[in-house]
Amino acid sequence: MQMTAEVERALIRSEPVVALESSVIAQGLPPEIGPDVAKEAQERVRAAGALPATIAVLDGAVRVGLDDAAIERLAHDDDVRKVGGRDLATCAVSGQSGATTVAGTLAVCAMAGIHFMATGGIGGVHRGWERTLDVSADLTEIGRTEVCVVCSGAKSLLDIPATLELLETRGVPVIGFRTDTFPLFYVTESSHALADRADDAGTIAAAAAAHWGFARRTGLLVVQPVADEVALPPDETEFLVEETLAQAEAAGVAGPAVTPWVLARLHAATDGRSLVANRRLLVDNAGLAADIAAAYYA
Ligand code: PSU
Ligand code: MN
To answer: Residue 109 is part of which domain span?
Structure first.
């Protein structure tokens, strides 16, 4: 594992560090936008008084903290793997490069001793899981890694009730940040009620400290709705998601390729409005994760 000197120093001194995933750079966003968004997220973390540590594998080295050149490579090289927890070792041993999903990022957080991370949306239980068994490894890793994960919920292309059930089964608290319902990524609200809500970062930091203090060896999931002014309307979005999922199935798209494929279609179908929302929520989630980490280590 190669950690940048500033991240290593911060971790040794118990100063706030926020891990950022990189699959969003390589697979989630178009290459001409991904690096800008990644850098903006990093700047937001710094502005909140924490250090960003974007995670990836480059030429077989697990990297904690990336410079701008590394971020550009992830966006533009065409042999960058999508790396979950199971892929870390084979990617490293073969000398390949890979961008880490939430699951892969959490696996590296466990190695590095990082307890806070931010992402856009987590992977979850896919619709049709009864047939396909497609359940994101994000849920497995959140269920066994002591990291507070900040996201904007999950896309409605997932089976949201099943995803929430599995989080409960795995012992993961789901805390709404200034919301009482589970947000659906581009959409601020849903009909899925949450048991827990917090209105400031300090309360979430206290919940994380208590959770780990009670020897709960799992993550916590913090869900923050995308800002109202860039959110997409629920009905239009639900229709588009349904349509795109059907197209994916008809085109034979399956497994890890589903989410990137559907995202790209949605970006085109909304004339880029979904990209604006995606960008905003990624940066805002990085900021909230930094606020929580700063409160935790204060
Ligand atoms: N949701 C998004 N954009 C993304 C992802 C999810 O809106 O880029 C990525 C994240 O890295 C997440 C991963 O961890 O997809 C989940 O992939 P899968 O469903 O294959 O486990
Ligand atoms: Mn999957």
So the answer is: 2-297
Q: Which residues make up the environment of ion ligand 2, defined by Cβ < 5 Å?
A: 134
For the beta carbon of residue 180, count every other beta carbon within 10 angstroms: 12
Q: CATH code at 186?
A: 3.40.1790.10
Q: Can you tell me the distance from the alpha carbon of 192 to that of 183, in angstroms, rounded to the nearest whole number?
A: 8
Atom of ligand 1 nearest to the CA of 258: 20
What is the atom index within ligand 1 of the atom nearest the CA of 23?
11
Which residues belong to the active site?
21, 155
Question: Model-level pTM?
Answer: 0.96
Q: What does each C-alpha distance from 72 to 26, 31, 63 come to in angstroms?
A: 9, 8, 15
Q: In this model, does residue 98 exceed pLDDT 90? A: yes
Domain total for the chain? Answer: 1
100 lines ligand 1 (CB under 6 A): no
Angle at which helix 273-297 crosses helix 258-269, to 10 degrees, equals: 120
Q: Is 205 in the pocket of ligand 1 (CB under 6 A)?
A: no
Yes or no: say if 2 and 61 are a contact pair by the CB < 8 Å rule.
yes
Q: Is the pLDDT of residue 138 over 90?
A: yes
- Which pair of structure tokens corresponds to residue 271? 């004339």
For residue 157, pLDDT beyond 90: no
